[in-house]
Amino acid sequence: IAGITQAPTSQILAAGRRMTLRCTQDMRHNAMYWYRQDLGLGLRLIHYSNTAGTTGKGEVPDGYSVSRANTDDFPLTLASAVPSQTSVYFCASSDSFGLTSTDTQYFGPGTRLTVL
Amino acid sequence: GENVEQHPSTLSVQEGDSAVIKCTYSDSASNYFPWYKQELGKRPQLIIDIRSNVGEKKDQRIAVTLNKTAKHFSLHITETQPEDSAVYFCAATPLDGTSYGKLTFGQGTILTVHP
Question: What is the share, in percent, of chain A residues with pLDDT greater than 70?
Answer without folding.
Answer: 93
